Automatic annotation (TrEMBL):
<feature type="signal peptide">
    <location>
        <begin position="1"/>
        <end position="19"/>
    </location>
</feature>
<keyword id="KW-0732">Signal</keyword>
<protein>
    <submittedName>
        <fullName>Uncharacterized protein</fullName>
    </submittedName>
</protein>
Amino acid sequence: MNSKLITTLLMIFVLSACSKEPDQNMSKQTDRPTVTAQFEQSDEMISKYLDQLDDPNTTLDDKKRIVCVDYPKEYKTNYMPSLLKLNPENYTQAKLLSDLDIALSYYKEKENIECKNTPS
C-alpha cells in the first residue's frame, strides 16, 4: 500500500514538473514580440541621437546632453537589455558596454566634450 502511494505521488510530481516547462516556454515566446518592439524603438532612438551628433547644425550643448546623458541612458536601460534578451548567444553585457564606451569616446574626442558627474 505504501509503495503504491509513493509511486502515485512520484508520478504526479513528475507529470506536474513536465507540464510546467511548456508554460515557461510559452511565456518566452509571447514576450519575444514585445522585446523585439522595444528593441526596434530603442534602436530608432539611438539612430536619431547619432544623426544629431553627426549633424553640423546641432548645438554643442545638445551634443553634450546626448553624449553625456541621453545616449548612454537609452543604451543601458532599453537597447542593451532588449538585445541581450533577443540574442544572448552573440552578445554579452561586457561587450555591449565596451561598444558604448567606444562610441561615446569617439564623439567626446570629435566634439571635445567632457562629461561631469554623469555616466559615460
